[in-house]
């Protein structure tokens, strides 16, 4: 069975600095998707970034980038130039490429931004 | 604006009562999902539906029921058989099999009193 682990329940970073959130996963599949979702205090889940496992290039979305290490089954999220609006819960999620429904979620990391 | 609307935002239920959580989307998405979120845990799938009049159990379907009579609507009923219903419930939708991104509603916080 696939699992997703986020080992950092909480992280804090000074505004304008860079922070990296960790995520590891376990799967025997070779093709899959990985996601980072953000859940701000409003509780709505917002997609931050996604990575297809067959792509070697790390995904980037503005200040957000990932370090995808397929062999190590690691998928960390780097947030550059942290802003107060980045404060939220961040969830890492996995989905098999042939699955329409089964998102496997990590327990989340609470990110605190210090002004 | 297109999106997913969940209502109500907060819901209180007495022991032994059934309650229904609403989820409506105007994104023309085929697939819809219900998740449960508890503190310190990731989301867990309750039910999902890929087309109208069809739905499948997820990992924690016991004590819940759903219907999908319209493409836009996927209500979740929390029955009295659900032993620990107090939680945050999130509804999501996706365009279809090939589309990878799920869009989420703002959630409903259910509390048993």
Shape of chain B: globular
Let me know the number of strands of chain A.
Answer: 12
Helix content of chain B: under 10%
Percent of residues in beta strands of chain B: over 45%
Euclidean distance between termini CA atoms of chain A: 41 Å
Could you name the ranges of chain A where pLDDT drops below 50 across 5 or more consecutive residues?
none
Structural class of chain B: mainly beta
Helix percent band of chain A? under 10%
Give the averaged pLDDT of chain B, no decimals: 91
CA-atom Rg of chain A in angstroms: 14 Å
What is the N-to-C order of secondary-structure elements of chain A (H for helix, E for strand)?
Answer: EEEEEEEEEEEE
Q: What is the gyration radius of chain B calculated from CA atoms?
A: 13 Å
**Gap between N and C termini of chain B, in Å?**
35 Å
Individual helix count of chain B: 0
- Major sheet attributes of chain A: 6 strands, mixed
Largest sheet of chain B: 7 strands, mixed
What features would you describe in this structure?
- The complex is a heterodimer of chains A (115) and B (113).
- Chain A has no helices and twelve strands.
- Chain A has strands spanning 3-5, 10-14, 19-21, 24-26, 32-39, 46-52, 60-61, 64-69, 74-79, 88-96, 103-105, 109-114.
- Chain B has no helices and eleven strands.
- Chain B is globular, with a radius of gyration of 13 Å.
- The N and C termini of chain B lie far apart (35 Å).
- The A-B interface holds A 4, 9, 33, 42-47, 50, 91, 93, 95, 100-108 and B 31, 33, 40-45, 48, 50, 56, 58, 88, 90, 92, 94, 96-97, 100-102, 104-107, 109.
